[in-house]
Amino acid sequence: MPKVIVEVMPKPEILDPQGKAITGALKRLGYEGFAVRQGKRFEITVDGALDEQRITAIEAFADTLLANTVIEAYEVHAVVDDANDSELEVTGLITVPAESPVA
User: Fold this and answer.
1) Does residue 46 belong to any structural domain of this protein?
2) What is the pLDDT of residues 28-81, one digit of tens each?
3) If 0-12 CB within 10 Å is exposed, 13-18 middle and 19+ buried, where does residue 30 land?
4) Is residue 83 one of the residues assigned to a domain?
5) pLDDT the model gives residue 34
6) Is 34 exposed, middle or buried (0-12, 13-18, 19+ CB in 10 A)?
7) Looking at the domain assignment, is residue 75 inside a domain?
């Protein structure tokens, strides 16, 4: 069965307090040179074929339900089983770019 991954991240101009907290904790633990931004990942299993209509539907509900597009951007990754059914591979990518900066 095809799977679709929707990754949601704060837009670059939006503050990320959770990411800042993680970055601070890393420094306190001795891990220097890292900056973290925290987001969300949704895994969606699709019954049947993953066609253009299904991708359009996923984009629509990602835009209205999974992401707050005022402050977040998202990417939709189409994933299918490889020939050996061993691992998943990314076969397509649909990116919804961040809008202009929030005033």
Assistant:
1) yes
2) 999 999 999 999 999 999 998 888 899 999 999 999 999 999 999 999 998 866
3) exposed
4) yes
5) 97
6) exposed
7) yes
Query: Is the torsion defined by CA of 16, 20, 26, 29 positive or negative?
Result: negative
Looking at the structure of the chain, the number of domains it has is 1
Which amino acid is residue 77, in one-letter code?
H
Whether 102 maps to a domain, the answer reads no
Q: What is the DSSP letter of 12?
A: T
Phi-psi sector, 36: left (phi>0), alpha (psi -120 to 50), beta: beta
Long-range contacts of 58-64 (CB under 8 A, 24+ apart): 58/4, 58/6, 59/94, 59/96, 62/6, 62/8, 62/96, 63/96
- Per-residue model confidence (pLDDT) at position 84: 38
| pTM for this predicted structure | 0.74
Range of the domain at 60: 3-13+41-96
Residue 53, C-beta contacts closer than 8 angstroms, at least 6 positions apart: none
